[in-house]
Hints:
There is one protein chain. By secondary structure, the protein is mainly α. It has five helices and no strands. The protein has helices spanning 4-25, 39-46, 48-57, 62-71, 81-107. Helix 1 (4-25) crosses helix 5 (81-107), helix 3 (48-57) packs across helix 5 and helix 4 packs across helix 5. It is elongated, with a radius of gyration of 15 Å.
Amino acid sequence: MKNYQRYVADQANAFYDSTLGEFEKAKEAPGGASDAPDFVKWLDQTGAIYAWVEKASAEWDKLTILKISGQTRHKSQFGGAREKAVEGFAQDLLREVKKLHKNQAAAD
């Protein structure tokens, strides 16, 4: 993995494309202050992002784990190298997915 931020962006695009259809079909998606369904709350409620992170992190080797834990925007002080990398990647992925959804909503 040469560019971690590019990796996160690619994973976010793939995740967003694969889950947006499910979100739009969800009849009981949780809402926020408005009546519109909240994508991030839905992600949290369904656990979709964590399942994606577990799937992606299953193929990481030790070198990749160390690179991710060193390059993530979200540093964790607790846990081993793998836990730090997974947590940081999950937070970075969620940040990118939020940006994608916000840009998509602005475009609509």
